[in-house]
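EI: anyone free to look at a 276-residue chain?
SC: sure, send it
EI:
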Amino acid sequence: MPLNMPNTVHDADVYILTFKGNNELQASETSLGALALKLLVLIDGKLNVAGIRARAKFAEGDEQFLIAMNELVRDGYADLATNQLTLSPDFIEFFSESPKKLSESALTQAESEAASGVSTLQRHGYYVRIAMKAAAQIESSGGESVLIVEDDEALAKFLRKYLELEGFSATIAGNRNEIVAGLRRQPPPDLVLLDVVLPDADGFNILMKMREHPTLKTVPVMMLTAKATREAVLKGLAGGANGYITKPFQPDALIAAVKTVLGISKNPFDRQSRIE
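SC: here you go
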């Protein structure tokens, strides 16, 4: 094993393919070498590393095998099964180009909220659906996790900075692979801040697929939007969003919205979390 590559895989570890790994196997061409591709095919979420090595007919401690396995993990083709949720094969449909049609009942229910939602967004910079927040007020134990789905790197880092200053644990996902990895992690995030417009995905589609998933359906989702239009707010509320935050945002509005939707803040428009 080269000195500059630490060994991150161990015989008892069980790995599962990531979104990137599945895509690589389904692609008509591959950038992987023959050995890496052979091992990628053997990673199934059941065999441990020792089992994969035996199937690939390598001796214990074989340097070639360890280098290839470590590279697959390092480059994001595989991840520990214990880090991932058990998701259905259609998880990839989070990124379908064809938006799912909203039900008439969901649209009707959201109609009455849309006008007040837009008005509140314009006045305060955020809107939270109180009826959909955490079932009970909680005392923050600190470190609640937030997944920031935002392709603007500068804005994403700005969001993470203020969340971490307030005691939250925040991670950033700016593309399909990172979004899948963020949603697969175990345990799932306590809150998702979801950009409406993404370069290789549709925020509304991701929202609706989350609401259909048995594990992710209860995760609070706040949409990030640059335009507080009635149409956009209506679509998000009908799709199951817990609220909206406008871009650009004020730090105090961001923190108040996050705490409110998590059931930490008692008053949806208080300023106790103001960052100077």
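EI: The mean pLDDT is 77.
SC: 👍
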